[in-house]
């Protein structure tokens, strides 16, 4: 016996990946419903060998469905997640709406799967921000060994992190560079993204940081350890899929780079590719479609007593969103609902 699963936002970047990953990981699905806004009602998506028709979320009755994987943005989530949760359908949400709610667990299964039991307070489980998800997968085993004091991270985030519209904007602006008769002004991003980088993701906060940077700080604390200090600079780059991060870590105890590499190699969800030669590291293009978080360039930071640097790359639509959501669904099934 399997589960009756809802995928809300099935026409979007994350929703489509959720369907792919449910199939790839052979999630025990008895029945699946695919939802989006009224705009998409009746359009078709594929799941395994089936063609499914999109239903309007506004007309959908969540009663009798086990889990709903949501990827519809915070505004729509605010309206529909409580309806699903009240109908006893557990919501696994990709938006930021519930991530900081103390009554909602924020889960990265490699790090804090045990927190999942907190789902029952609201029938909602939150999925972290894409940049946080891959970073905490890398930090967790190192923190367990040498206690992390402080993290300095700079991100290189792909345009798919801004949804379908962000990918279209990079594509259209790139074409326009070669066809200057057509002007494609910035819409999703604040400046032209083609052949450029933009040190600004989400809104500015009073202290000069951005909400994206704040999310990395708050979510790392909630998932790993409130004592870890994090400072982040989040940057959008003209890459379609795959987020990269340069991470500097200060530990309480000394951790040798070779030992760190060995620890990471043995840890769940991580693939270490770290040869000190031309091309001996992973770039975002190579991680697309993969489940792993890739680690390269592990090296001692000689400016600190107990410091390491590393490079961390992952498919933001997978570990950063859809894969993590499906892993949460697997954990919920295994630990709580026990149907599959
Ligand atoms: N992309 C990432 O790397 C990433 C990572 C982590 C979290 N997330 C989060 O995941 C969510 C989806 O992101 P995305 O990248 O997939 O965006 P997207 O490609 O723009 O897709 C948005 C999806 O939401 C649906 N939607 C929008 N408004 C709706 C409404 N009022 N009612 C029902 N459905 C509605 C859209 O349906 P229509 O086609 O009908 O408009 C579409 O299916 C966002 O909350 C985002 O913050 C994304």
From TrEMBL:
Residues that hold substrate according to the record: 157, 236
Reactions it catalyzes: L-aspartate 4-semialdehyde + phosphate + NADP(+) = 4-phospho-L-aspartate + NADPH + H(+)
Pfam family, one: Semialdhyde_dhC
Pathway: Amino-acid biosynthesis; L-methionine biosynthesis via de novo pathway; L-homoserine from L-aspartate: step 2/3; Amino-acid biosynthesis; L-lysine biosynthesis via DAP pathway; (S)-tetrahydrodipicolinate from L-aspartate: step 2/4; Amino-acid biosynthesis; L-threonine biosynthesis; L-threonine from L-aspartate: step 2/5
Catalytic-site annotation from UniProt: 130 (acyl-thioester intermediate), 243 (proton acceptor)
Residue positions binding phosphate: 99
Signal peptide region: none
Residue stretches spanning the membrane: none
Enzyme class per UniProt: oxidoreductase
Sequence ranges assigned to domain Semialdehyde dehydrogenase NAD-binding in this UniProt record: 4-119
Annotated NADP(+) binding sites: 11-14, 39-40, 160-161, 180, 316
EC number per UniProt: 1.2.1.11
Record Gene3D superfamilies: Dihydrodipicolinate Reductase, domain 2, NAD(P)-binding Rossmann-like Domain
Keywords, comma-separated and alphabetical: Amino-acid biosynthesis, Diaminopimelate biosynthesis, Lysine biosynthesis, Methionine biosynthesis, NADP, Oxidoreductase, Threonine biosynthesis
InterPro entries the UniProt entry points to: Asp_semialdehyde_DH, Asp_semialdehyde_DH_beta, NAD(P)-bd_dom_sf, Semialdehyde_DH_NAD-bd, Semialdhyde_DH_dimer_dom
Entry function: Catalyzes the NADPH-dependent formation of L-aspartate-semialdehyde (L-ASA) by the reductive dephosphorylation of L-aspartyl-4-phosphate.
Subunit structure: Homodimer.
Recorded family membership: Belongs to the aspartate-semialdehyde dehydrogenase family.
Stated name of the protein: Aspartate-semialdehyde dehydrogenase
Organism: Shimia sagamensis
């Amino acid at each position: 016996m399997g589960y009756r699963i809802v995928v809300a936002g099935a026409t979007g970047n994350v929703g489509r990946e959720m369907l792919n990953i449910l199939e790839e990981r052979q999630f025990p699905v008895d029945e699946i419903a695919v939802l989006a806004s009224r705009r998409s009602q009746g359009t078709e998506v594929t799941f395994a060998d089936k063609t499914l028709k999109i239903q309007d979320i506004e007309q959908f009755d969540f009663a009798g469905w086990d889990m709903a994987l949501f990827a519809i943005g915070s505004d729509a989530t605010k309206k529909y997640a409580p309806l699903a949760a009240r109908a006893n359908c557990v919501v696994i949400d990709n938006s930021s709406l519930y991530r900081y709610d103390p009554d909602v667990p924020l889960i990265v299964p490699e790090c804090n799967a045990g927190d999942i039991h907190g789902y029952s307070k609201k029938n909602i489980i939150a999925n972290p921000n894409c940049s946080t998800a891959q970073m905490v997968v890398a930090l967790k085993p190192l923190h367990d060994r040498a206690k992390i004091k402080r993290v300095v991270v700079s991100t290189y985030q792909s345009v798919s992190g801004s949804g379908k519209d962000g990918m279209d904007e990079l594509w259209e602006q790139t074409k326009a560079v070669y066809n200057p008769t057509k002007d494609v002004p910035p819409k999703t991003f604040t400046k032209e993204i083609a052949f450029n980088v933009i040190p600004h993701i989400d809104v500015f906060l009073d202290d000069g940081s951005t909400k994206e940077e704040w999310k990395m700080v708050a979510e790392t604390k909630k998932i790993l350890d409130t004592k870890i200090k994090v400072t982040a600079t989040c940057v959008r780059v003209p890459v379609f899929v795959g987020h990269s991060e340069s991470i500097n870590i200060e530990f309480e105890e000394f951790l040798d780079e070779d030992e760190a590499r060995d620890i990471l190699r043995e840890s769940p969800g991580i693939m270490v590719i770290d040869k000190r030669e031309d091309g001996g590291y992973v770039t975002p293009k190579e991680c697309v479609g993969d489940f792993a978080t890739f680690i390269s360039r592990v090296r001692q930071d000689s400016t600190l007593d107990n410091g390491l640097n590393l490079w961390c790359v992952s498919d933001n639509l997978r570990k950063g969103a859809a894969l993590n959501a499906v892993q949460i669904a697997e954990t919920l099934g295994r630990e709580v609902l026990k149907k599959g």
